Amino acid sequence: MIDSPDIAQPVLERLSFAYVRRPGLWKIMFTNLGMGIITLTVWHFWGKTNVRKHIWSCIHINGEPLEYTGKGGELFRGFMLVFAIFILPLLLLTAGLGFYLGPQHPAISGINFLFAIAGYLLGGFALYKARNYQLSRTNWRGIRGNMAGSAGLYSLTYFGNILARSFSMGWATPVMNVVMSEQMIGDMRFGDSAFKFKGRAGPLYPTYALCWFLTLFVVIGGAGFLGYEIAQWSGSGFDAAFKHVFNGQGEAKPTVDEFQLVGLFALGILGLILVYVLVIPTLWAIYSAKEMRTLANYTRFDGAQFKLNATAGSVIWLALGNLLIIALAVVLAAGLIFGAISASIWMGFDKSTAVVIMTAIFVVFVYQGVWALTRPIIIQRNIGFVFRRLTLDGAVDLNRIRQSVAARPKRGEGLADAFDLGAW
Amino acid sequence: MAVSAIYYDGESARSHDVEVSENGTLISFSGTGTPYTSWSIKGLHAIDAPAQGQPYRLTHYDKSGARLIIRDDEFIKTLVSRSSHLKGGYSGRDIAHIFGWTIGGLAFVAAIGYVAMVLLPDKVAHVLPETWRNRVGSQMEAAMAEGAKLCHSPAGDAALGAMIANLAQGQPDLPSISVHIYDIPVLNAFAVSGGKIILTREILAKADGPDEIAGVLAHEIGHVAHRHPEAQLVRLTGMQVLGSVFTGSNGGDMTTNVAFLATVLKFTREAEAEADAYARDTLVKSSIDPMGLKRFFEKINKLEGGGGDHSSAFSKLGGIFSTHPGTEDRMKLIEPLPAGVVAKPSLTNEQWLALKDVCKG
Asked: Is the confidence metric ipTM above 0.90 for this complex?
């Protein structure tokens, strides 16, 4: 092939990225919901594949869409294999040990700890293998990708990352994310061409420190507010009011004032939770944006450098939108559950039938519904966010990129699916 | 008719402009740098279903990396109209596979579930070794007592012993039990593995006579005799494994928990009915007035707010998750001693007072 006339002349092209939405995602989502119900969630693997096929096809590089060539059956077989050789024996072992030793035996927590460690070790392995499967099923201009390194090695880095982050109160995060990206991105191949990742964590630290101390400030402030709340209420009959409101049996009925007292306290706590849920992630969006920009800057392909125009504001907007979509779906699901239970009782089903109906509804609506109707949108938003903001500085010699010779994995993502890591 | 298309050869990322034509059995193309190539239409595979205005992407089974991208709607229409396999989507075989796996998987889980939840627990419960029953029972007793004081007094302990002896009179094969009273301010009584029975201070406080406690005790001994706590542990273990198997990767914990709770409680209700029957039998055989147990149930019923509106949605939902059969239903089954049988007191007055005060010691 070396003497082929095509190879002699370099075909330098500047690559541009775009996320071009096209109709069809809602159809896929509702099909997945319906099929998920009919097949009692077995459809999951095919549904996931359909969503990927759609989203991949919206990612355009120089006007040519990516193509996802994976099959639902491959994911299903991958999961079944992992289930048979890993999950089922582990389940039987833990359940058997738990049964033999008794549920309260002190050794149980030790065993759980060992399994958690094994789980964390396998987590990195699973993520790497899933990335390899996805790349091997991603085509652009007929060329597919792959991972060229060792999943075992990555799993050690991943485990080290968990340890380092927990022992350093988070301060190892920038270093570890750079180290993990170096391994994950550095091992990525498009055809026979490698992605390169090189850079230091140093420039990430000022932003990390800012977010860390601001979070500390918010946490201390919150704790102070909680202390003030408790100090203010204690001694003003709050204990009695609390008992009256929450413990109906045998206690006096709460008065209107007592309700007000407990209500105000609850409002304070709720406000605090809301501040935590909204403020802390918002703060960390500043770091996320900085990290995304920096890691993109450290990545090169065929000498060209990636750039990602992610700002804190855009990351916050993205996250808030995602949160809102999930919240809406949960509210909708809760309404449906309540309606279905009321309807089943109103229709006069006996208790055990109602249990079956209720269980089925939980499976169907809460999990299937929320999953099927939110995840694809969120994935689309996240991927769209990246590809609308990603640029590649410099030209790439496309003629030089040859097809990958790495073997394509036959099955995919069993472990990642088992750990629910294969989100997209 | 020849139309323009783009060809990727699957060997490099370079794009090639080609002219494509088809004759019903072959699709052929060529262009600068692309030699004349023919693919059989039978061997073509559509990457996506054709859509108006969208490029149509084809590959061939013999050259899986190569892509032929056609934009001419008319050409695509003609090609697809003659070859239905180019319409994309799932084949009948794919659908049959998915449903086959679904039905097979469910049948497998249902069969295993039946064995693990219905057939095995009672049988396993009766062959579990004593050491295991005692070890697990002690753990559960400690967990339920949550560090509460174990109530003791010489007279109280003697009274409890006397009550058990009185129950044993009519039931010579009474299982081996140990009864502990804990200083817990909640009205309850439990039997755990290994014949360990736990009564709370509150249950003694609420009882108006020894026959009520004798009835409760006979009920708990019923659980021990039927090995209900052991069977329940086997069932829970089976449930734990099955729950994870059934929900696999894609089940929420919520699903497992609801199914788990509902199944376990169903068996709990059956166990309660069995223990009630054992209690009624034991009390009659020992000539202890079963109406004591009935009076106790009446008290529970009153505390639960019984006799209210049972048709409301919430009380029906509550029923699904109640561990005991309806208290009123249970009371109906309790009958007085047969005519001619003289009731024996389960304890003397002094013994009863000593037992009631056992937690004050």
From this structure: no
